Amino acid sequence: xxxxxxxxxxxxxxxxxxxxxxxxxxxxxxxxxxxxxxxxxxxxxxxxxxxxxxxxxxxxxxxxxxxxxxxxxxxxxxxxxxxxxxxxxxxxxxxxxxxxxxxxxxxxxxxxxxxxxxxxxxxxxxxxxxxxxxxxxxxxxxxxxxxxxxxxxxxxxxxxxxxxxxxxxxxxxxxxxxxxxxxxxxxxxxxxxxxxxxxxxxxxxxxxxxxxxxxxxxxxxxxxxxxxxxxxxxxxxxxxxxxxxxxxxxxxxxxxxxxxxxxxxxxxxxxxxxxxxxxxxxxxxxxxxxxxxxxxxxxxxxxxxxxxxxxxxxxxxxxxxxxxxxxxxxxxxxxxxxxxxxxxxxxxxxxxxxxxxxxxxxxxxxxxxxxxxxxxxxxxxxxxxxxxxxxxxxxxxxxxxxxxxxxxxxxxxxxxxxxxxxxxxxxxxxxxxxxxxxxxxxxxxxxxxxxxxxxxxxxxxxxxxxxxxxxxxxxxxxxxxxxxxxxxxxxxxxxxxxxxxxxxxxxxxxx
Length: 511
Ligand SMILES: [Zn+2]
Prior knowledge:
This protein is of the alpha/beta class. It has a domain at 111-325: 3-Layer(aba) Sandwich (Rossmann fold), CATH 3.40.50.410. It is built from 13 helices and 21 strands. It has helices spanning 126-144, 180-189, 197-209, 219-231, 259-273, 294-304, 316-325, 418-423, 427-443, 447-463, 467-485, 491-502, 506-509, and strands spanning 2-4, 8-10, 20-25, 35-37, 56-59, 63-67, 74-76, 89-95, 111-117, 149-155, 159-162, 168-172, 236-242, 276-283, 308-311, 330-338, 343-349, 362-367, 372-379, 387-397, 403-415. Strands 2, 4, 8, 16, 18, 20 and 21 form a 7-stranded mixed beta sheet that branches. Strands 12-11-10-9-13-14-15 form a 7-stranded mixed beta sheet, sandwiched between helices. It has a 4-stranded antiparallel beta sheet with strand order 1-3-19-17. The structure holds zinc ion.
């Protein structure tokens, strides 16, 4: 799960060193592994986990202690807590699942809220396709995850919270649509039957069949309503579907001002901190140019671990099936990479935006098993240590609700032999990171920067003595770049294309 592009670190920095890149993939989190229940021994200053018993020293004056391999701090430890053997990859359970307060133990299902556009433009088959797709979703949940709780919010010029019997638990309209406080308050007070699909499926199917399209697009208030519902229930998944630009209430994206955009940024951030994963489905118009501002809405997905889709009416059902099929193996994922000062972390990719402090904990929301993130590091002028430690810490909540801390530590030897360094270098790991970086640049509208990122790395590996592999990697990168800078039909198309590259998987790229 933790790989590096390099097997050695060069003792002296040269002008054009091949980049030091580490990749972190998450498929292992879903596999069984022996666990330690309890807290690890951590450096009091930087949080580095003690994994090597050899670094423990006994001193009659100071007592039992270790000097942190990452920040150099001396930490006193209780001799009875010490690890007995070297732990390269260890999984701690740091918090058991919250106890369920009923007498009989039961598995609690996931919470899903669909926030659906029923504005006038959804007529002509689109809403029918959505209704069919949601009906399939309900049927599927009833069989495969009957304890899932399902909720429905529909928006047009007003926002409705609809219960399984088809009744409107809540209607938000008029001035209230312009007040985030009002909408949040109304949804948090709503007495809503958020029940297991097992018991409500047939009623839901009947209710869905009665949805009718009308009027405008109060997307912002609808989204905030869905967020509020899920937040109060400990999180869950939110499916946002629209075919038009938000234009009613707060979060309106019709005016050029940034107020509307900021609303989505803030709510994306709030979702991430409240265990809510958002999938965004934009429905495109076959002929006319539609404008959905998917770049703005896409942040909701990129920040929370969900996906963005830009699909035709005919593709809606397949998209819903895809969303249903996605398994999140870990939630509330937070990653921290630790290195000593001689190997400084300079960038992290696979997240929505550039992270100004990549050495600090990074929130990823939910992760599926194919998710990969990458870290780039740089050495200082001269590396003094003979061996440089790198530690990846992944904190997450598993599907049973237990909080883990997975700690994977690698030690990389120093070499003065440049040939040894290049010969053992893995150009694919860095290649995948460069595609994610180029995707991020393109997502922000910087096509030239995307070209520069890929072009520079192609030249670098062409010059290094790894000829046959370099050629393969360079070709794959060229193909990715061509896709990135290809003229898209619309802004929405371009946003979704580049967002996919931000999440590209190295495994798929070079398989
Ligand atoms: Zn430390």
